[in-house]
Amino acid sequence: MRHEDVHGVSGTGKVADVFEASNGKAVVIWISSNPSVVVYDNVKAVENVHGHGGKTEVVWEWEAPRDPDPMDAVIDRKVAEAGAIGATAVEAEKDAEANAIADEIVEDAKQAIDRVAGKVAERLTQATVEKVERKAAEKQAEKDDAEKQE
User: Fold this and answer.
1) Cα 68 → chain centroid
2) Domain presence at residue 16
3) Which pTM value belongs to this model?
């Protein structure tokens, strides 16, 4: 940003775009009726040549995000793994709880089946006894009728 035009050439305000490369080199693109592009070793060199004691300064409108720290990825992965382990433990606990409930239901069902089977067996036994007694009575009646006719 040029606050005062010392040489009366570029004017004031925004007079150039400055870019800093990842290797530290600075590229200056002058905005004027005679535009040009100049590459400097670094931004400090641009300020030394064109700063005029603070009358022109480099104002960053945007800064590139910092390079990611490779340890961030390691930490993120470890946190995710820990979360997955925690989730797995929670799921295992829920599975164990579900299995316990299922076991209880199965046991209750077995007891109910045993009770029903017992009742069915009692009724079948009673029905069988009644049928046998009825058949025996019919046979006896037939025998008694046959003896009376003789």
Assistant:
1) 23
2) yes
3) 0.40
